């Protein structure tokens, strides 16, 4: 592989080191940031994700508040748990781990989250603030969606040019594709973005035009080497289970064919690329919420 590695593990570690100092400053003022999680049921993957998020928080000094309900919990019981996290003063930000059990209206549950405690940055109010915030200097301060923010940070901290570049995003979902386009086109970031998806008829041609490619559609090895402009930056966000290993562990594949590494200028590994950045930005949202609640702006403690 000739592409430079966009190392999400190392970049996330640097972000956590910065967050550790900010948390220490908050604690000196008696403010303890806290991440709350709501886990419904006992899905092994969901439990693993939640455990990892709390581990990340522990590394930087953020407290953990865990709420668990059985898979048989009703819509009302889950809603009540969300209200409890909204009202808990120890919780500066929280997430509802998805998916919720069959029969539960996920959107209705997510809309109950206090936007100021929205650690995922995906509450409709905060997405609306992102739409309004074309200019960061005048934007309403709000948490950003974790994966899109992680993508932008991974590029910026590895000195990949963004301003004036043509970015092709594959995927139109609300967790990555749509909000990522908004982040990349903000004043100060200044990319030109094309959003594509699995049904775009000329997808390969759209990708070939791009200086930066972000694949987040969940189709294993969709992006082929001959789709990619030589020297482009390629970020592999999609993850699909494609079987099991001999030891019984899940075998995963990203959206980008490994041969792309011989053409691209930069390539994020999968795993080890955008995933660690997503988790780091979740912790960042929790810390920033605590800084706001302490009367300061994100990155400062008054």
Automatic annotation (TrEMBL):
The annotated subunit structure for this chain is: Homodimer.
- Give the originating organism: Microbacterium immunditiarum
Residue ranges occupied by any Tetrahydrofolate dehydrogenase/cyclohydrolase NAD(P)-binding domain in the UniProt entry: 145-293
One GO molecular function term of this record is:
methenyltetrahydrofolate cyclohydrolase activity
InterPro entries, per database record: Aminoacid_DH-like_N_sf (IPR046346), NAD(P)-bd_dom_sf (IPR036291), THF_DH/CycHdrlase (IPR000672), THF_DH/CycHdrlase_cat_dom (IPR020630), THF_DH/CycHdrlase_NAD-bd_dom (IPR020631)
Give the Tetrahydrofolate dehydrogenase/cyclohydrolase catalytic domain ranges.
Answer: 6-120
Q: In which pathway does this enzyme or protein participate?
A: One-carbon metabolism; tetrahydrofolate interconversion
Enzyme nomenclature, EC number: 1.5.1.5, 3.5.4.9
The keyword Hydrolase is assigned to this record: yes
Positions of NADP(+) binding: 171-173, 239
Task: Briefly state the protein's biological role.
Answer: Catalyzes the oxidation of 5,10-methylenetetrahydrofolate to 5,10-methenyltetrahydrofolate and then the hydrolysis of 5,10-methenyltetrahydrofolate to 10-formyltetrahydrofolate.
The family assignment reads: Belongs to the tetrahydrofolate dehydrogenase/cyclohydrolase family.
Q: Name one GO cellular component term.
A: cytosol
Top-rank taxon of the source lineage equals Bacteria
One BP term from GO: L-histidine biosynthetic process
Q: Which reaction does it catalyse?
A: (6R)-5,10-methylene-5,6,7,8-tetrahydrofolate + NADP(+) = (6R)-5,10-methenyltetrahydrofolate + NADPH; (6R)-5,10-methenyltetrahydrofolate + H2O = (6R)-10-formyltetrahydrofolate + H(+)
Q: Which UniProt keywords apply?
A: Amino-acid biosynthesis, Histidine biosynthesis, Hydrolase, Methionine biosynthesis, Multifunctional enzyme, NADP, One-carbon metabolism, Oxidoreductase, Purine biosynthesis
- Name of this protein: Bifunctional protein FolD
Q: Which HAMAP family match?
A: THF_DHG_CYH
């Amino acid at each position: 592989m000739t592409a430079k590695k966009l190392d999400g593990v190392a970049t996330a570690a640097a972000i956590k080191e910065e967050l550790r100092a900010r948390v220490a400053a908050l604690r000196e003022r008696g403010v303890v940031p806290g991440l709350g999680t709501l886990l419904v049921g006992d899905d092994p993957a969901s439990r693993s994700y939640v455990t990892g998020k709390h581990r990340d928080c522990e590394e930087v000094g953020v407290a953990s508040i865990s709420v668990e309900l059985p898979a048989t919990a009703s819509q009302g019981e889950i809603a009540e748990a969300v209200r409890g996290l909204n009202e808990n003063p120890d919780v500066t930000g929280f997430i509802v781990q998805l998916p919720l059990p069959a029969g539960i209206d996920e959107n209705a549950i997510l809309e109950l989250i206090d936007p100021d405690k929205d650690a995922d940055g995906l509450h409709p109010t905060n997405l609306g603030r992102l739409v309004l915030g074309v200019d960061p200097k005048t934007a309403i301060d709000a948490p950003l969606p974790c994966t899109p923010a992680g993508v932008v940070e991974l590029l910026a901290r590895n000195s990949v040019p963004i301003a004036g570049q043509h970015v092709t995003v594959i995927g139109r979902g609300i967790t990555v594709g749509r909000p990522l386009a908004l982040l990349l086109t903000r004043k100060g970031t200044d990319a030109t973005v094309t959003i594509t998806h699995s049904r775009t008829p000329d997808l390969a041609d759209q990708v070939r035009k791009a200086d930066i490619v972000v694949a987040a559609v969940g189709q294993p090895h969709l992006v082929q080497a001959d789709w990619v402009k030589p020297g482009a930056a390629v970020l592999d966000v999609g993850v699909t289970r494609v079987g099991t290993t001999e030891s019984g562990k899940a075998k995963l594949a990203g959206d980008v064919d490994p041969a792309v590494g011989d053409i691209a200028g930069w390539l994020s590994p999968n795993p080890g690329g955008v995933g660690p950045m997503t988790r780091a930005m979740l912790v960042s949202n929790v810390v920033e919420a605590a800084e706001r609640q302490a009367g300061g702006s994100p990155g400062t403690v008054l």
